[in-house]
Design brief:
Number of strands: 0
Shape: elongated
Helix content: over 70%
Largest sheet: none
Strand content: under 5%
Number of helices: 3
Order of helices and strands: HHH
Structural class: mainly alpha
Length: 60
């Protein structure tokens, strides 16, 4: 009896997670963090600026 319930709980959780990952807000946040990482790698911003700006992105 418990295994079917656990199975559906896992399936629904996976579907919810995938829907959240594909949301426009999450995609924009990921793109912003990638851009910051690229700028940091090129030396355009310092580590402190990277952490500050990443923190601002994650708060939204």
């Amino acid at each position: 009896m418990i295994f079917p319930v656990l199975f559906w709980l896992v399936v629904l959780s996976a579907v919810g997670y995938l829907a959240w990952r594909r949301s426009p807000t999450q995609q924009a946040r990921s793109a912003g963090e990638r851009t910051l990482a690229e700028r940091y790698a090129r030396g355009e911003i310092t580590e402190d600026e990277l952490r500050l700006r990443r923190g601002v992105l994650r708060r939204r």
